[in-house]
Structure formats: structure tokens, C-alpha cells
TrEMBL record:
<dbReference type="InterPro" id="IPR001128">
    <property type="entry name" value="Cyt_P450"/>
</dbReference>
<keyword id="KW-0560">Oxidoreductase</keyword>
<dbReference type="GO" id="GO:0020037">
    <property type="term" value="F:heme binding"/>
</dbReference>
<dbReference type="InterPro" id="IPR017972">
    <property type="entry name" value="Cyt_P450_CS"/>
</dbReference>
<comment type="similarity">
    <text>Belongs to the cytochrome P450 family.</text>
</comment>
<keyword id="KW-0408">Iron</keyword>
<dbReference type="GO" id="GO:0016705">
    <property type="term" value="F:oxidoreductase activity, acting on paired donors, with incorporation or reduction of molecular oxygen"/>
</dbReference>
<dbReference type="Pfam" id="PF00067">
    <property type="entry name" value="p450"/>
</dbReference>
<dbReference type="InterPro" id="IPR002403">
    <property type="entry name" value="Cyt_P450_E_grp-IV"/>
</dbReference>
<dbReference type="GO" id="GO:0004497">
    <property type="term" value="F:monooxygenase activity"/>
</dbReference>
<protein>
    <submittedName>
        <fullName>Uncharacterized protein</fullName>
    </submittedName>
</protein>
<feature type="binding site" description="axial binding residue">
    <location>
        <position position="456"/>
    </location>
    <ligand>
        <name>heme</name>
    </ligand>
</feature>
<keyword id="KW-0503">Monooxygenase</keyword>
<keyword id="KW-0349">Heme</keyword>
<dbReference type="InterPro" id="IPR036396">
    <property type="entry name" value="Cyt_P450_sf"/>
</dbReference>
<dbReference type="GO" id="GO:0016491">
    <property type="term" value="F:oxidoreductase activity"/>
</dbReference>
<keyword id="KW-0479">Metal-binding</keyword>
Amino acid sequence: MGEQGAAAGTPLALAATLLAGTILVFYIYQQLKPSKSRLPGPLFSWPFLGDTIEFATTDPTKFLFGRFKRYGRVFRLSLLGFTAYVTADPEALRPLLADEGGHFTIPVQTFTALMGAYNLQAHKEVHAAWRKVLMAALTGSGMAKLVPGVVAVMGRHVEGWAQAGRVELYEAARTLGLDLAVDVLSGVKLEERGIQPAWLKSRMADFLGGLYGLPLALPGSPLAKALAAKEELLRVLVPAVEGRQQELLKLWEDNDRSAAAVATKLASSPETATIADANLLGFTARGCTTPRDAAMTVLHAVMGAADTTRFALFNTWAILAMSPRVQDLIYEEQKKVVAENGPELTYKTAMSMPYLDAAFKEAMRLLPASAGGFRMLTKELRVGDVLLPPGTIIWFHALLLQTLDPVLWDGDTSVDVPVHMDWRNNFEGAFRPERWLSEETKPRSYYIFGQGAHLCAGMVLVTLEVKLLLAMVLRKWRLQLEVPDMLARAELFPYTKPAKGTGGMRLIAREQPVA
């Protein structure tokens, strides 16, 4: 640049520097000036990114426990373009979890951009009707009806792993979760509609891949790919669900547009209620009755089933593969189950596996498949000495609440991670499924699937799926990580994902497989 150009640029550079300095001084003043309304949290954080970088590069338990030690049971956390107040006070949370003083919300911008403004849980009447039908579909005879399809899909996957002698954990959990969601739970008969399952699952994978991330739809970004996939999926799903939507709308009109009345009929019908019925009713009760809305119910069903399954399965697999002791105890339980009930895996036999159930819960306690839930305050909430105003987003973070479990935590704040959560350095002491088998040692804080009126209705399904698969595999094989410290190297935010080249698990044949 010539001298004249440099001289011309100097005033602009000086002005920009002065402006930046002024903004910085004002920001510091705002943060440091005395204020009775100041809420707990760091004085400084990165613009837009907030705490994302630190949270993503630190052991999440250590990060959250460190914030708790510094600020107490409520503190500000900014991630992925939103700000929430993590609240780890069960008494303060109790009314919120009963929909008193707050309502359900999901503040993640990418999630909302893809899933739409169909929040069924923020409206009591809609939520009650939707949940009633969903629970009918996922309990008792409804669940028993789903199990054969679930077992068949799992069997195909296990056969492939057995031939290879290994499993690529993250990819296997992702594809299995997606197959179960599309083939068994979506309610769409793809081939009858001329929809190629492989194509649909590929586009669904792109759609799901954009749910959690920075809200920037730059060309080639996960969000841009997900938005494009969404439109492609809706185009083929609209005609596929049109008939079912018309049936629901007729039932809606025949029952005076009463969500409660329709829910009662669906839940008590000899034709067992389905997930599709529940979602269509919820959307209809919200006034979302266009063909596009009906197609969105399929995306909601697949998202809810596929994502929860893949995260829960991967996390449980990773923990179990590190514990030969627990694997052998599950194997011994399976021998007893087969001796008493035969080898067929059914809803009934899955309910007769207390140690496997305990192992799943313990894995979820250490490495939750979800981060809890959010509430938007509609009135003031006091947490200790802190008063949170209406409009504040509350985050009951499963990992922190489980870290502070009153049965397991001894109150020691001198450590970076309490011993009952420190699977990195105290694995055998931290991973103890036995603690769930006694009322004296059973954890009291278990928030993976939410709490209260919004306890995830799909919790039973996810638990069943993981138990069925683990029973199927552990009857014949031992699990062994190809990279023993895979989990310690893994990314843990926004969900657990192994570092490249570390996610393999060997299947080692047992000398006496359970038939």
C-alpha cells in the first residue's frame, strides 16, 4: 500500500480502535459496578460462543462441578447461542417440574430451526392428551407389540457385527437408532409409498446431524445440510401421511375438538395407540393441521427415537466395554433368564433383568444420554439467595444434579470430580451397578429423561431397546475396546463421540454362549 493509502487508512483504524476500546470499557463497567440484581456467572465470556469452547474442551463433570464450587447451586451458562441458568437445587426445581411458575422450552436455536415451533409440552391440555396416547403406545400391550420388530432389526445388525468380529461403536449406534426409528417406530410404510428406505435414512441422517451446533447456516455447514434435507423429506412424507392425518381430523371433529376425548378413545382402542397417533393429536390440538404439519410429526418421531437411542446405546456400550466384571454378571443373569423363560427376547423377559437394568442406569448416571431439560420462568424463582426473574431460562442439568446426589456425594469440594463420578481415575469405584439394587444405596438424583410431569415417555422404550440389544450380545460375546482409553479421548459435548480411529470394539466369543 502506498503512503497516501496508508495515511487514509490511519483515521479509520484509529476510529475502530477507539470504538472497540469504548465498548470494552463500558462492558467492564457494566460487569464490575455494584448491582443487587447481579446473577451468578463469569464476568467475561466470549461473544456469541459464551462458554462453548471451555465446556467442549473440559471434562463436563469437572467443568460443572467447578462452576458449582465457585457460584453455588445456580449459575449462568452460555452455549451455542443461548444463555441459561443451571440450577442444581431439587427443592427449587420441584414446582417447575410440575409446570408451576415455568413452562417447558428448548432454547437451542438449531434445534428450533429444524424441528419448528411445535412445542407440545408448553401447553398443559395439549401435553396431557399427547402424553396419554404416547404412554399407551409405549407401555404394556403397546410396547409388547413393538418388541418383535425391534428384535428383528437388532438381529440383522448383530449378525453383521458377528461376521466382522467387531463393532464401530458410534456408527453402529447411529445406524441402529435410525433403523429402529424409521423401520419400527415412524408409522410410515415406506416401500408401499414408493420411498426408498436407504434414501430416506440418508436424508434423515443429514437432518439429525444439524440439530445441535452453532446457528449458522453457512454453505456446506451441518445446519445448511439439515435444512435442505428437511425440505426433501417433507416433500415425500406429505403424501405418505395424508390418509392417517385425515382419519385423525375426522376423529377430532367427531369429538367436538376435545384433545382429552380423542386421547381417551385412542388410548383405549383395541387397535393399540401408536407414536404417530400421539404426535398427530398433539399437532392437531395445537392448531397445526396442514399436510406439512402432518409430515413434521414423522420427523419428530424419528428424531425422538433415533437420537435418544444412539446416545444411550453408545454411552452404555462404552462404559460396559470397560468392565469385564459387570459383563460377566450380566451374562450370569442371562443364563438364569433363559433357564426360566427360554431364549426368546420379549417384553416380559426384558422386564426380568434387574442387574442389566441397574447397569444401564449406572452408565446413564455417569455418562447421561441427555443433559436434562429446560424451563422458561413465568414468575420469580428463588434459589438460595439468588432471585431469578421471569423470562429466565432454567437448566436442570442431569450431570450436575447426579454429581450432587445426596446419597452418593459426601460434600467434599476439595476434589475436581467427586469419586462416585470419577470414571477416568476411579472406574471400578465409580461404575457400581450394585448401588441400584438396594434402597439404602440407590441414587436419588436421576434426571437423564427429565422429571415430574415431563418425564420422558420414551424412557421405557429406550431402556428396553438398550437392554434387549445388550442381552442379545452379551449372551454370546465379551466386549473389549480396541483403544482402552477411548472414552477418555472422546468428545463429550454436545454429545459423546469418539476421536477418529478410536471407536472400535471387539466381540470376543464366549466359551459357553447362552442359547
